[in-house]
């Protein structure tokens, strides 16, 4: 585990023109959080969300990225909605810059802050980014299409054997979260976690991702 949040796993190259086209599409969406088009990048842990969000942010000219690993904690892996709302969503909705406290996964406490300036598009990246409590603020949900088992294998290869116990606990928490509050059926965009291919999603489609 990195000092502040996990490192990004490998993701197959996504063609630059496809990312650029998606960025252009996102810019045309109606604002959803004050003047901001808030876009969620969601998927299983290890599916490549952080890598893809970084590429998309670059294609957007340096769009701010909120990493939900910075808001989650060991004790509350999915208990970050209040912090996200108070420190990021409500300020942006009011046209003000946000700033959130960053959790240090090594020190097991919040240490430091991350700024979230008002921008045409702001990305929220992490497991559960498209959850029920966040969707009213979102212009689009992007889902990284990779099954849970394959994503977990990527994550375990990335993090090494020292974090095997952490991954076992995380897998249980993630499975319970998506069973109760799935994001995939609400994704307007899907990104294949193996090929990197970007395709439109069908909002309302039942979730088939385990």
What share of the residues lie within helices? 25-40%
Low-confidence stretches: 1-9
Number of helices: 5
CATH class categorisation: Alpha Beta
What order do the strands of the largest sheet run in, or round the barrel if closed? 2-5-1-6-7-8
Q: From the alpha carbons, calculate the radius of gyration and give it in angstroms.
A: 16 Å
DSSP strand content: 15-25%
What is the N-to-C order of secondary-structure elements (H for helix, E for strand)? Answer: HEHEHEEEEHHEE
Structural class: alpha/beta
Any guess at the CATH architecture? 3-Layer(aba) Sandwich
CATH superfamily: P-loop containing nucleotide triphosphate hydrolases
- Number of self-contained structural domains: 1
Head-to-tail CA distance between termini: 24 Å
Mean of residue pLDDT? 88
Number of strands: 8
Q: If you had to describe this structure to a student in words, what would you say it looks like?
A:
- This protein is of the alpha/beta class and 210 residues long.
- The chain has a single domain (16-200), classed as P-loop containing nucleotide triphosphate hydrolases (Rossmann fold, 3-Layer(aba) Sandwich), CATH 3.40.50.300.
- The chain has five helices and eight strands, in the order αβαβαββββααββ.
- It has helices spanning 16-27, 49-59, 81-93, 148-159, 164-180, and strands at residues 37-42, 65-67, 98-104, 109-116, 121-125, 140-145, 189-192, 198-200.
- The strands form two sheets. It has a six-stranded mixed sheet, covered by helices on one side.
- A hairpin with a 4-residue loop joins strand 3 and strand 4.
- Helix 1 (16-27) packs across helix 2 (49-59) and helix 4 (148-159) packs antiparallel against helix 5.
- The radius of gyration is 16 Å and the shape is globular.
- The two termini are 24 Å apart.
- The relative contact order is 0.22.
- Residues 1-9 have low confidence and may be disordered.
């Amino acid at each position: 585990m990195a000092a502040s949040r996990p490192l990004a796993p490998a993701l197959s190259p996504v063609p630059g023109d496809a990312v650029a086209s998606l960025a252009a599409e996102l810019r045309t969406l109606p604002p959803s959080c004050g003047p901001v088009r808030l876009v969620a990048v969601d998927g299983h842990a290890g599916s490549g969300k952080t890598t893809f969000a970084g590429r998309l942010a670059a294609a957007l000219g340096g769009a701010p990225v909120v990493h939900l690993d910075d808001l989650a904690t060991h004790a509350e892996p999915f208990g970050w909605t209040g912090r996200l709302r108070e420190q990021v969503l409500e300020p942006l909705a009011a046209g003000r810059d946000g700033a959130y406290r960053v959790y240090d996964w090594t020190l097991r406490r919040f240490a430091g802050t991350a700024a979230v300036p008002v921008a045409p598009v702001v990305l929220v990246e992490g497991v559960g980014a498209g959850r029920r409590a966040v969707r009213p603020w979102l212009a689009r949900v992007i889902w990284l299409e990779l099954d849970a088992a394959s994503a977990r294998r990527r994550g375990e290869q990335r993090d090494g054997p020292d974090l095997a116990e952490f991954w076992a606990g995380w897998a249980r928490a993630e499975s319970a979260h998506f069973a109760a509050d799935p994001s995939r059926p609400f994704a307007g965009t899907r990104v294949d976690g193996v090929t990197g291919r970007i395709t439109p999603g069908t909002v309302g489609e039942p979730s088939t991702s385990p």
